[in-house]
Design goal:
Blueprint (H helix, E strand, L loop, with lengths): L2 H9 L5 H19 L8 E2 L1 H8 L3 H13 L3 E4 L3 E4 L4 H25 L2 H20 L2 H19 L2 H21 L6 H16 L3 H25 L2
Antiparallel strand pairs: 1-3, 2-3
Length: 231
Amino acid sequence: MTLAERSQWKDEGSDESRNASLAHIAYTQLEEMLVTLSLRPGSLVREAELCESLGIGRTPVREALKHLERDGLIEIQPRRGIWVTEIDIRRELLALEVRRPLEKLVCGRAARRRTASEAAKFGKIGRDLRATAETGDGPLFMRLDAEFNMLVCQAARNPSAAEALVVLQTRSRRFWYTRVTTGLDLVRAARHHADVAEAIRDGDEPGAEDSAERLIDYVEEFLRASITVGI
């Protein structure tokens, strides 16, 4: 789902605003269920069951599901149901070919364009990320990672680049969630993210781009190792 569509769901003032708001709520809850593997990869789910679970009607849930299919998290098969897509490490590696230049661009522009208020937020996220490296709190790292990604996209003020990156990051979060307790080098992951956050805080555009490059290098290294050892 694009950032523009997220905003539209939140800000619509027409007669359809209630359904739009419910669709946004349904999307947010379903995305979280998919990313945290409450809806397991490869599993079959039914629209009616999702409506009942969320307490939201069919129309907004169906709209949310369309966006999730575009994000690549589910596959809708008419008259059969909804399949949760599998996590494919090789596909993640291919996605990095697109993510690498986008991450560098968006992080660099965020350092150039962030406001003073956003700079303070990046500073706090950086400190919190370094704390997770000390405590080993994987779930907190995942929440901070999601917060960091959205703040970077906001601060970059380049909707086209941000919209493309958000989809790739959402897919990637599912993979990383499976690794927060099995195999993820949380110390390195958290510190690389903190380096980017602090460079953006400081308005250091070259530093933010370099830190983003090193972060993607780490992600690629981890993905390739995952294929080798089968984790």
